[in-house]
Amino acid sequence: MIRVDDLKKTYGQHVAVDGISFQAAKGEIFGLLGPNGAGKTTTISIISGLLEATSGTVTVDGRTMSPTASSVKKVMGVVPQETALYEELTARENLRFWGGLYDMSGSRLKKRVGEVLELIGLIDRSDDAVKTYSGGMKRRLNLGLGLVHEPRLLLLDEPTVGVDPQARLSILDVIREAARNGTTVLYTTHYMQEAEELCQRLAILDHGKILAEGTVDELKKMVGEGEIVTVRGSFTAQQMHQALEGHPHVHAVSLEDHQAMLSVAGDGGTARLLQDLLGQDLEVNGVNVQPPSLEQVFIKLTGRELRD
Amino acid sequence: MSSLVLMVAKDLRRRLRTPVGLIVLLIFPLAFAGMVGTAFGPSSGSGSGLPVITILMVDHDEDLLSNALQNATGNEQFSQQFDLVWIEVEDEARRMMDNGEASALLILPENFTTDLLDGKQVTLSLVKNPAESILPQVVEEMAGVLGVFLDTGVRILGEPLKMAGEMFDGVEDDSSLFPDNQALVALTLQAATQIRPISRYVFPPAMVFDTVSENDVALATLLQASPGDTTDDLLRRQATAAGNEELTDAAADDNGFNIFAVLLPMVSLMSILFMGDNGMRDLLAEEKAGTLTRQFASPAGVGRVLAGKIILTLVICSAAMLILAVVGMALGWISTSISLVGSVLQVGAIALAATGMSSFIYGFARSHRAAATFQSALVMGMSMLGGSMVPLSQMPDFLKAMAPYTINYWGIRGLTDLTVRGLGVADVLQEAGVLLLIGLLGMAIGWWRLSRRYALGANA
Question: What is the DSSP code string of B116-131?
């Protein structure tokens, strides 16, 4: 459905997107996960035709995308990070306008507007001015505007930023529903949990480059198949490194002074690790044991936490 | 439906949901023209836009010139503007002034005629009503003109007048003293000799002889001019021959001066120029709201979105001009029989010029504050120089020379040609042409700048 090949965008000396490539099939939810400034929004902007790439290509259903390719734009729905709505108009008027802009009209448009209002749960407030809506309602309508023309490709740029948990769940449900109906979804986020819950495949992005790509399980395997043990105490990274050297069950994900994140494999591996650490005169104040997560994948890939 | 129509319709719907700004801009010219026009308007029935001014006259002279003055001021045209009340006793006149019964009191002193003819200095006394501000000023101006007129008249006709005074002295008591024909002819010839050098200025010719072409003769024949025809008759027939029915009615209807027809175009121009901001400002409002970028990502693209905003501005300005014109007509401020084609052309050209100006400003401004500041300064400056605030005739020459560089000048000129002078489409072609040129140029530059800015992805 969508194929991105060696996409690059530079602003003078600054490289915003550095040769990224990925593809997503029909009905797939593909996530671009990365911290702020990783190049997610720039990538989405190029794909949606708002920016011209310095090099590389974007093809949608075999057609090359560019800022003037209106036939490609027609099959895309774009949901920006900030709510982009006409506050003076009602939800129905907003939907009718955006549907009309994508060549929908008459009874088809009217029917589709009704369907979307049902889908986003705003049918009861559809004839009220948007300015009277809560933040969550506006977010849902923001998503609905991207869906009204039944796009084959839906581009979502962090659509749940600042949304309360209930509204977030509602938005994620609508996105899943769209994907079930055959819409390919390209979803950018910096929320690990959201990416894990929603995306079938992910690309982890940092400094304009894709560091890893695959399903959630494939990515998690990059930090091992066992448990993630975080150890805190009065030790240096060097001391911890020496203590773990040659340990059969452990490999370090990240080591810092006073904190180490370790991947532990094998049955009883965690208990054995703790015994060994305590036996080596390392002052340990706390231990946290978790299954592997994307957070640890990101730390392993970048050496820092995603919230950085 | 075309995406352009959709975008403009959507923006107009948004405007109508929050119409306060537009209503204020529409009410402003109507209220301003209404207030000023009512203060100086034709409600009194006078044709000049000022109420009839009452002047008390006290004549201590009762001689040739004061009698001539009484006769001269008795004509119909003069009495449409001034109501001269001749009072025999000065104290009575002063009492009336104290009661506020007149705008001014003018006293002709004793021996006014003889002193004037003898070349002595004569002093006219004018008492102004302190309760009024403008009307006594008008009387003062008029008294000044009278002074100049009398002074000039006496310098030129002093000798013949002196002769006439001597000639007719005692005729009232003894008719045998009436001068013979020869003396009267000599007097007339002397007066005519004195007047002839200045006759072109004092008495502009009602008829001149000129060389005419065959076409002119044919036109005259076509118009079937006859000695009894008035100017309006000829204008009407000329317009009919040219196929311009509106001109005939406008020319015939608008004999009197209508102050509203002058004020409304003046103030409307300023208001329309401010209104242009209202349309283009939406570009930055949508940019802030994120809907602009969202539209750029739609199949409409940058080009059509920008075109939509420019058309929106044009529609707002045109609609505003139309509303002002209709309300002006409904209030009787503008004749309903003005040239329709000329009005559409001129109104469209003004709207286009206002749109061009705003497009230009927003092409360079990066924030609404910057645009609004520049727009306000430009509109106020052009309104000052172009005749929206002060009539051009009241301006010093160096400012008058700058007026043609403003939209207001060409807009007001064209509109008053239509509404006040009752002219037709052919007479506003120059004004409309200049405005169209300004508008298209402004739009082209604005379009170019905005296209570049948004194509570079400043908002992505």
Answer: HHTT-----EEEE-TT
